[in-house]
Known about the structure:
By secondary structure, this protein is an alpha+beta fold. It has two domains: 10-39; 56-163, Sandwich (Jelly Rolls), CATH 2.60.120. The protein is built from two helices and eight strands; from the N terminus they run H-E-H-E-E-E-E-E-E-E. Strands 1, 2, 4, 5, 6 and 7 form a six-stranded mixed β-sheet that branches. Strand 4 and strand 5 (118-122) form a beta hairpin. The chain is globular and about 40 Å long. The N and C termini lie far apart (55 Å).
Amino acid sequence: xxxxxxxxxxxxxxxxxxxxxxxxxxxxxxxxxxxxxxxxxxxxxxxxxxxxxxxxxxxxxxxxxxxxxxxxxxxxxxxxxxxxxxxxxxxxxxxxxxxxxxxxxxxxxxxxxxxxxxxxxxxxxxxxxxxxxxxxxxxxxxxxxxxxxxxxxxxxxxxxxxxxxxxxxxxxxxxxx
Length: 177
């Protein structure tokens, strides 16, 4: 069934006001996104070489629940890409992330440690940290660790890393990975 719609001056004015409101709202959201992201230092894209930073890295354990949770977050998600280089033997502080983080080890090795397991990841592999309160630390191998993180965070999250105390017990009852 086809509905006809007669446009009256009153309807036309309302439509213009709604479109104007939508444009103002969109601009406000863009401005808010820029303001929220302004606390994170970024690189000039011209200073970054073109190409794959890591390719065909195998990630065998992809936890579906945190990825579904962030994909359904109200307002969408913010994506951050970070390159980290840790000298040999460096141990990060215990921490969590406000959403999942995809880790790709480009060179060296990185050991992921939580309350349940200590698992090494050599170059060419990676993992997905589930975030959302999952406490862990990372340990660089004997040749250091050069890796990339892609954070998938609920929109408007103020930071990617939240320092915390070490975990007291194995929260999920199964080894990570």
